[in-house]
Specification:
Layout: H1 6-11, E1 16-21, E2 24-28, E3 33-40, E4 43-48, E5 56-61, H2 64-73
Antiparallel strand pairs: 1-2, 2-3, 3-4, 4-5
Length: about 80
């Protein structure tokens, strides 16, 4: 049996962003949508899930980069 640490795998995950509308950015990997980042007047809200209308809020961040990192590093099923 081989044990693999998941944290380094999450840290090396490449993400792409796509502007969906003014103030809303989709965050994805090559095979799945991780979530969205919504700009609410200078506060960046990270929302996990493929649809921002019913996704779960991960957190609120001062910068878009911090919100992107929160989505990239969040735990998900492997």
């Amino acid at each position: 049996m081989t044990t693999i640490a998941l944290e380094p795998l999450r840290r090396s995950t490449r993400i792409t962003t796509r502007v969906v509308s003014a103030g809303l950015v989709q965050v994805s990997t090559p095979d799945r949508v991780l979530g969205h980042v919504r700009d609410e007047g200078g506060v960046h809200v990270a929302i996990k899930g493929p649809n921002p209308a019913w996704g779960d809020e991960v957190g609120r961040y001062a910068t878009q980069g911090m919100a992107l990192e929160a989505l990239r590093l969040r735990k998900r099923s492997v």
